[in-house]
Amino acid sequence: MTATFDMRLIQRGARLRRSPFFEATLKYGAQRYTVYNHMFLPTCYGDLEAEYWKLLNDVTVWDVSVERQVEISGPDAFTFTNMLTPRDLTKCAVGQGKYVIITAEDGGIINDPVLLRLGENHFWLALADSDVLLWAKGVALNSGLDVKICEPDVSPMQVQGPRSQEVVARLFGDDIRDLRYYWFLEKQIDGIPVIVTRTGWTGEVGYELYLRDGSRGVDLWERVMEAGREFGIGPTGPSDIRRIEAGILNYGIDMTLDTNPFEVGLGWQVNLEQEADFIGRTALERIKAEGPRRLLAGVEIDGEPLDLNMTRWPVHLDGSEVGFITSAIYSPRLEKNIGYAMVPADMAELGIRLTVTVADGDVRGAAVIPKPFIDPEKEIPKS
Asked: Can you give the pLDDT at residue 152?
């Protein structure tokens, strides 16, 4: 197998983990990688805009093993997991998933995983880029709760796009077509055990295949590619264009430990009416009562197409710096530069004009506009 990318450019020694799909990503031409959750994440196989249109029009496959799992089991697993998140898990059935946030004692966001409930007292958390395994073990240490916390042999890949259902049904059977948004089924193909979820990080119709045997990664990848060949399947990395259009946040920049759910539009995740206690409850009650002092606003930035920002871009109002751009990029179908700006709450009102200093010191006008920028009711991924 001929590698198309010299991993020595970003790796020294064996400290960074390679996914079960890693050799397949090399074979199919991955050209760029980043490090995410101490693992290699392929980010590009060619032209990023071409990959975006492939996602919108056909079907794509993406190695997301970097969504490292935390498994929580044991007699008190429900009580413990419900304590980690402000979302009320009594409303999550076995066989169902939920997008959740994990909060610190001051209300800051530690992570925003997809949670799967495999049993009454059995959960997986598919993580964004932060060390929740260590956090969970620390919380459990003196909790008095009987739980087992570990990282299981589970590695997800995403199959996304309008033709993804055809591909996944060909692999696992037509009952996949009835799978509801954020629910899952246990499946097997040629002895390869997987859990198929109706989830994804794209805003498109999509599925994630949670491989439960790391020795079969290349086998599963090849079967997905074969099943998708007639539907135009292609490998991609994460589409920042599509996720920003959809209003999807990227942990580590759009939200961090220094932000709380109400600031970034995730207040709906905070169920203060539930009887159970959770970490950060007192702080979140206070923040809700007082109202957030700043907000993550949607913005449209004037001028020529922008590439994804590599740093926080300063935002000004009337000559004073008031905030920063977290993520911004050019949307080919909207023909606009769109993104998110963290600004004081009174400057997040629709129509407010700002200025943004983008790459190379170029100063652009910008306006606060509604987000998500496309499909605010999530009709596409639910269809």
From this structure: 98
